[in-house]
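Reviewers asked in the last cycle whether our approach scales beyond single polypeptides. To address this, we selected a multi-component target totalling 231 residues and predicted its structure end to end. The input consisted of the following lines:
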Amino acid sequence: QVQLQQWGAGLLKPSETLSLTCAVYGESFSGYYWSWIRQPPGKGLEWIGEINHSGNTNYHPSVKSRVTISVDASKNQFSLKLSSVTAADTAIYFCARGVRGVHAYYYYYMDVWGKGTTVTVSS
Amino acid sequence: SSELTQDPAVSVALGQTVRITCQGDSLRSSYAGWYQQKPGQAPILLIYGQDNRPSGIPDRFSASRSRNTASLTITGAQAEDEADYYCNSRDSSSNLWVFGGGTKLTVL
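The resulting structure, written as structure tokens, was:
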């Protein structure tokens, strides 16, 4: 059974860099989209970006200038770095596995999620 | 547009049927994924593809799609179904994931 275990610093000061890592257990890294999603307090889910096993990335336009997602396939881990954080980056951050299926159309879904890491940005 | 639109809140009487909708251009050529999130927990996948449930998801949850609208139906809502529900998909033009704003379901 696939499991995602995530960790990272939970309290940051404005202008610091957020750094989180997600380890994948029980499944190969290949063939999936590995995403980071966040959820500000009391709000909905916001996709941040993704990486595949080859290191190809896609980022949400709202954070693209500040975000880097990287992969260490040898360790089955992928990481998120978000620079110059502000209070607006305060959120629960989740890692998740994205899957592509096909049935008349391609369709996409996220079937495995990490438990989430609460990140607070405060001076 | 790559946005997915959901009603912010929906209520249903215990044991009755409720439909939660998700609207967006990306759904014209794809199916939505549906997720349930309870307070303090990570989202869990309820439905994927045309109408597929992961192991352990009750069959009272089902999905459908018409034009640019995906729907999640709960047939015989239970008290434990009170939660936030999110849809998501991937925009084919931008190649980016997108989430709906979420629907808070109250079971009366």
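The interface with chain B takes residues 33, 35, 37, 44-47, 50, 58, 60, 94, 98-101, 103-111, 113-116 of chain A (CB under 8 Å). We regard this as preliminary and will revisit it once experimental data from Aim 1 are available.
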